């Protein structure tokens, strides 16, 4: 009953919630429970709301009735407009469909009109083409008639018109009618060309019969309307003028020019020109250039006068290059002298060539430029011929090989110390400053050359008489010259007293000999410090040796070239056409010498001892050139220009280096062979005894063979130095291998001593040679008696002089065979300290003896006295 008073509110809240979604704000309303009894009340409230709504709607409808009427009227108007538009659109569609039908009919009419227009155009074009074809056909018929009548000039014009007309026919090129016309026109063209050539060959006729060649040129034939000029016009129209000219030249060349210009033929036929006929073979002619130019001028004038200008010009372009080349190479090249002897004939040839070229210019025959150039370049041409001849001759001389060896002698005068002069006079050694290049090396050089081809004993027969002469030293000495203190500098320039010899001094044999005597004295005499002797003397040293036949032709060629160059520099030689070639001629010897250096090694190396011959030849040639240069500068018959033209100093140095390099290469190769025979890089004493002795025997045999070979080529000093270099290589190998051993027992020491004893047998290679003139060549009378006494005594080998390690190897053998007391004696009393250092001796003692107090005491004594001989510590 408490909620009954809120039923109407709850019913209204339900209606408000249903219609507008409003939620009651009062809590008792919103939390109230709605039961079935409340529904009728709610429906009543709903009906009341409905009635109010309808009333409101009616009121609104009454208020908006006028507007609705207006909307209805407007809607009807719009509907009417739509209907009118639809009807209008239908009418437009119907009209459009009617227009399409009308346009289709109109298009059909236009297509028909276009078809009719094309038919009219086609008929018009067809008519034009038929008329053009008819015109071309008429021209071709006319052309056939003209060709049949041999009216070739008119036929050519008609042919040109016919091709023009055919080209203008408005048809495709593939049209049958057009192809037929083209084929017919080309056939007629070929026919006319054949007729034209036939007429040409009839007008320019060349006939060969029974060795007689006849060329006849007609301007016009009696039964032929076509003239020679007409044929040229025809050839120009066919663009075959050059082809015709080429064929004419080929025919003339084979029948006329080659037969007349073949300088190698047995006889040459003459050429005769008579009016319009040229004949070859009526007689013979000489081989002079003057006659050749006379005949060629006659032929060229004949062709120039009888042929039309166009064909003559085309012919000259084909003919003159070949003709001038043949003249220059076959005729004028042989007229160029290779020396100044035939210069008169060369001047005549130049005048004849110039006259011939001038006559060609007079008749306006082109192509004589090369002849003018030949005349203008006469000095260059002669120089080229001289250069080619000289080089070819030199090359041919070199290709002959070494040939028969020839002996030569070298003489030199120089100031030497009295002691050295006495040594040279006593031993008979002949020494010069060129033979010792590369001989002072203590150690073998690394391999630098292949193994030589052979080790023969010589190649010259009947040498025995010369062998005695070539080892003779002829020494002439004036009164002694006293050296003052102020002259010490001059003596120092010889390198005396220097412990370290410079490379240049090492090449000087006298300086090398002095150094060898200082560094390697004989074991029997103590060595004293070297001092400059206050006395010198002038000595003339001479040695004889063998050269091949290669350098002499080279030298003669060089001398002859320089003499010719000197002649061309004289004022009276200005009229000689090749005088301007003098500077180039003076440069030619350089090429000759360069060729000698480039080619000659091939011929030397194919011969036993060839490198030694090369060395001798190069030194001989350089000395001859030095003498020539010295004599050249003192000549009185030379012009001032000629004195400075001989520049051979650099060439002489290169030549000397070239020879020394050959010598060094030979020794390097032989040292490499020796090293290989001595077990190479392996220690030779690590081999068993039999292979060891076999290796030593092979080396000794090889060195003896080379010694004999060198002695048959080189002077005594040079051959001994070369052999000494090889022996020194063996000694170096032995010494090095001994020091590389870990220890040396008694048996091993005996084995090493045996090997060294075998090697010491080479001493006999260095015995002084007998000198039959020794007594007469004694430089100082006071020494005569001592020389005679020395001759009676046994000669001492000069091995230490040429092999610096020789005595060191011998002392090594003594040390290995000695007891400790003997070693001490050798160091303090003998010359062991001159060849071994303290460290080396101590090392040898360590290898040969066990270290005990006694051995250590000796070692301390040796180390405490490093220079027992007082000559400086080694």
Largest sheet: 4 strands, antiparallel
What is the end-to-end distance? 154 Å
- The whole-number mean of residue pLDDT values reads 78
Task: Specify the oligomeric state.
Answer: single chain
| Helical content band | 55-70%
Total DSSP E strands? 7
- In terms of per-residue confidence, which ranges show pLDDT below 50 for 5 or more consecutive residues? 425-534, 770-793
Number of H- or I-type helical stretches: 32
Provide the spatial order of strands within the biggest beta sheet: 1-2-4-3
Structural class: alpha+beta
Percent of sequence in beta strands: 5-15%
Bulk shape: flat
Radius of gyration: 62 Å
Domain ZW10 C-terminal helical: 695-850
Biased composition (Low complexity): 770-782
Pfam families: ZW10_C2 (PF22766)
Protein name: ZW10 C-terminal helical domain-containing protein
